[in-house]
Design brief:
Blueprint: E1 9-10, E2 13-14, H1 15-26, E3 31-33, E4 46-48, H2 56-67, E5 72-76, H3 85-92, E6 100-105, E7 108-109, E8 113-117, H4 121-129, E9 144-148, H5 149-152, H6 168-174
Parallel strand pairs: 3-4, 6-9
Antiparallel strand pairs: 1-2, 5-8, 6-7, 6-8
């Protein structure tokens, strides 16, 4: 995209601001993992750099879980502008004794829209040491709860929660007024 995707504006609001505003209504703590700390200084959040640099998304996930105060952490990408509070709450209600609570859509598992427990830290470190970088690679080592789309379809029938912005074309398609906004 040529710039930090977190600051791309959708309907005049930077994506990171949309996520942050929603998270302030849901969580008492927000952790932002970034290698560019300065642009995020205006957020009331723990802002930290990767503990294990150069490990991609999985390294960022590890860092976020590590710095989180609570047993479970909801983890998302910085380029997901249409997260739904109702869906996040729905997943949260299914945590019980699971280490990972993850939605599965017709596109597959959604690891950047999931809850992770602190019990995931050692398994993540283990696969990183083996030079594996796919988030799902550590799932066999933890207690996993997959939430199928049919269970949450009514909360997000267009699957907007899982949309992200990777290209200018995707950004253009997100700006069309066909979205269902949560009230």
């Amino acid at each position: 995209m040529g710039k930090n995707k977190a600051f791309i504006q959708i309907d005049g609001i930077p994506i990171i601001r949309r996520i942050y505003t929603l998270f302030r209504t849901l969580f008492s703590e927000i952790v932002i993992v970034t290698n560019e700390i300065d642009p995020f200084q205006n957020f009331e959040a723990k802002i930290c750099s990767d503990l294990i640099p150069g490990q991609g998304v999985l390294g960022g996930l590890y860092t976020g879980i590590y710095y989180a105060t609570f047993e479970h952490t909801f983890c998302v990408a910085c380029d997901m502008p249409f997260l739904k509070a109702s869906l996040i709450r729905f997943l949260m209600e299914r945590i019980e004794s699971y280490d990972v609570v993850i939605p599965r859509t017709e596109d597959g598992l959604q690891p950047l829209h999931a809850f992770y427990s602190r019990n995931c830290l050692d398994p993540i470190r283990n696969i990183l040491e083996r030079r594996q970088f796919k988030i799902t690679d550590f799932f066999p080592m933890v207690k996993l709860r997959i939430v199928d789309e049919k269970e949450f379809f009514s909360l997000d029938p267009l699957r907007e929660s899982f949309l992200n912005v990777n290209t200018p074309e995707e950004l253009g398609s997100l700006e069309r007024p066909t979205r269902v906004l949560e009230r």
